[in-house]
Amino acid sequence: MPITYPACFFKEENGYSVIFSDLNDLSTCDETFKGAMQMATDCLAGYLYWAKWDGEDIPLPSKQEKIDPDAIAKRIGFEPGPSLIIPITVDVDDYANIYFKSQLNQ
Fold first, then answer.
1. Closest CA to 21 of 81, 57, 71
2. DSSP helix, strand, coil percent of the chain (3-state; round to 5)
3. Neighbour count for residue 95 (Cβ, 10 Å)
4. pLDDT (tens digit, 0 to 9) for every residue of the chain, 106 residues total?
5. Could you give the CA distance from residue 57 to residue 90 in angstroms, rounded to a whole number?
6. Residue 1 has what pLDDT?
7. What is the pLDDT at residue 62?
8. According to a count of CB atoms within 10 Å of the terminal CB, is the N or C end of the chain lower?
9. Cα-Cα-Cα-Cα dihedral of 71, 5, 60, 70, to 10°?
10. Nearest to residue 87, comparing CAs of 2, 1, 8, 30?
């Protein structure tokens, strides 16, 4: 079943950082926007998969309009600057079947 979390993309000098504030400021980055989008998808799917595997409680996603990029930047020590909030949707079961299939069969 697909699930969507808002991700805050910060433009930095050498690329993009991505923060999922709903998930304890889970973060990733890449040099390009396209790469950062892919990394965000992988990061979110992997986090949700392992949280489910470990039986952790997963918070509900915030509404996109409730996300404040400047507050997130300040909290994690970034200088507020150019940012975007983009919803990232993953299907954790599909992702696990593709990327973790060998572990599931052990």
1. 71
2. 45, 30, 25
3. 17
4. 899 999 999 999 999 999 999 999 999 999 999 999 999 999 999 999 989 888 899 999 999 999 999 999 999 888 877 999 999 999 988 888 887 765 545 5
5. 18
6. 84
7. 95
8. C
9. 0
10. 8
What CA–CA distance (Å, rounded) separates 92 from 52? Answer: 9
**For residue 85, what are the contacts with CB-CB under 8 A and spacing of at least 6?**
6, 7, 8, 9, 64, 67, 69
Residue bearing tokens 């599931």: 104
Which pair of tokens denotes residue 98? 């593709």
Amino acid 17 reads: S
Q: Show the tokens assigned to 39.
A: 């990394």
CATH code linked to domain 2-104 = 3.30.160.250
Per-domain residue ranges of the chain: 2-104
What are the tokens at 29? 């980055």
